[in-house]
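User: ok so my PI wants both of these folded by tonight, can you help

Assistant: No problem, let's get them done. Here's the first:
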Amino acid sequence: MHDASATTIERLYTLLARDFELKPEALEPGTRLEDLDIDSLRMIEILFSVEDAFRITVPAEQAELREKVKTVGDLAGYIDSLVAAQHGAGKGA
């Protein structure tokens, strides 16, 4: 269950802090994933949690994902695009 009023980035911060023991004060949209010690294996673990939390499927193109997603804000934007594509834009308000 999640707070429907929480933004994607707020939900992502909660997930990263709770499930991956990242310090909440370190989580900012511009924080680089590599600065959080998120390597490719840890990114896969995070993406599994993201899939569950946001009820989406993340495509398996890891190389493309690494090019697109460099920061926490990039990851939130990527999640938003998948949610829109998979659940339809305009749901909720």
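One down. Here's the second:
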Amino acid sequence: MAIKNKSTKYIIGAVLAVFLIFIFLLSIRKNRVLPVSQAEKILETGPPNDKKSSSFPVSGDKIKILFLGDLMFDRWIREVSEKRGNDFIFQKVNSLLQSEDLVIGNLEGPITDKASVSVASQMGDSNNYIFTFPPESAGELFKENIKLVNIGNNHILNQGQAGLADTENFLKNANVNFFGDPENQDLRFKIYDLGNTKIAFVNYDQFMSNAAQQTFDDIKNAEAQGADSIILYTHWGTEFVLEPSQKIKDLAHEFVDAGADLIIGSHPHVIQTKEIYKGKTIYYSLGNFIFDQYFSPDTQKGMGVEATVDPATKKIDFKEYNFSLLKSGQTVQNFTPTPNSR
């Protein structure tokens, strides 16, 4: 039947127009249309911590990965950053960090918008060991080319599960990747494409229950997912002790036997010895990189390990960098790199 009333025609037309707009918006959401800048960013690096492997660009034929020790942005480091700028503490090592394809460190605490309770606290006070890093820390990590961090450690839950969730959101928004989530088994390890090489980064955190077995499982799963190399970043050992215990050494050997190609240790806050076991290198602890532990010469030292991976042969060459942590809050490089190949 023909529609004679003009107002009725307008109503039907308006309803039809709304319906078509709804269908169009639904299709945009389904296909996840992104702004050009965001789409280009994801094409370059991959979305942070999606379930598939992400990519990091590689500048040459070989892959240069720099491993650092503990990163702590609360207490005195927070005060210095607020007074002198977030980049001040990295000022003397920035050129080294920027020269690498990928820089990795241990994020020794959560990133939240909560107020700090450890600023100006005294050693021995319980608040002295409860951390929260300012939100801008995530952006500073990206700016300094530290685009992958381990979060499997004894301080990441200082602000509870909400603090862990905040940390991951701030890192994602800054395009900084992470692995070692203590609450989510899907985020305990991550595989990244560097050049044509798939490298898995796996965490071991001695403070988690059933930690060793979880790590063995993660190494096995990384192999099953096609990882060409498996790098284990650990949080283990005894604080301020210069030698790893025999128990830690035995566990490291078991991880190599299970498939780890390189082990990098953290937590003792001092540099510990290294070992080559069955052709695989184990750095038991790199010590501090950004920290305010000025009570001992050993805690004011840190090591950086540059691993250069040859994708064709899987051979890894190492350079070791030595750092000093100054009471100004800055970290400085002391010596020229020392080659150490295997």
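The helical segments are 6-31, 36-45, 75-84, 94-98, 136-143, 160-173, 211-224, 246-258. The mean pLDDT is 88. Good luck tonight!
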